[in-house]
Inverse folding.
């Protein structure tokens, strides 16, 4: 049977497990030296009793204080800005490509409904391109009528007792209706 570790996921453990218990003290000192030092760490208490820990306090010291609403493009180096810009542009292109099928289907649907936004030149420049909205009217009417049936005010589930009615069956019908609504 497997053992299950029941420790909390955010539990801080300050122990170091050593595979070889006969390890020399020099090896233990090497492990302790790999832990970051707190000499260059800035610890600032907050009003709610917590602390803010800054491991590199001089990283963004530009001579003036950094405000939350400052423009990050003015604070970041050019090489980081170039990488971020390239990544954001690539993400935009990927998103646009992924929704291309949806856009095409949506446009075709509007064309089939008679909604075409064209610049008319026949019989003259700027002529009206009005179309008869019968199909659009039918879609709107169907949605209005189906909405009442699909989402009634007393909930989408109706119960009916078939056969002899008893208190137990009525209670069960009420429970099912209340659960589904």
């Amino acid at each position: 049977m497997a053992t299950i570790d029941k420790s909390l996921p955010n539990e801080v453990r300050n122990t170091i497990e050593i595979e070889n218990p006969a390890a020399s003290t020099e090896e233990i000192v090497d492990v302790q030296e790999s832990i970051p030092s707190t000499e260059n760490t800035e610890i600032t208490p907050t009003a709610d009793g917590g602390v803010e820990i800054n491991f590199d306090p001089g990283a963004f010291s530009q001579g003036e204080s950094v405000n939350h609403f400052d423009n990050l493009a003015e604070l970041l180096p050019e090489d980081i800005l170039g990488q971020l810009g390239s990544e954001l542009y690539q993400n935009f292109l990927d998103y646009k490509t992924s929704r291309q099928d949806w856009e095409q289907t949506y446009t075709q649907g509007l064309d089939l409904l008679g909604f075409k936004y064209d610049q008319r030149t026949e019989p003259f420049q700027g002529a009206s391109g009005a179309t008869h909205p019968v199909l659009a009217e039918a879609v709107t009417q169907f949605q209005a009528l189906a909405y009442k049936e699909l989402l009634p005010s007393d909930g989408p589930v109706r119960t009916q007792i078939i056969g002899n009615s008893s208190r137990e069956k009525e209670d069960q019908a009420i429970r099912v209706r209340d659960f589904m609504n």
Notes: The chain has a mean pLDDT of 75. The first strand starts at residue 42 and ends at 45. Residues 70-117 form one domain.
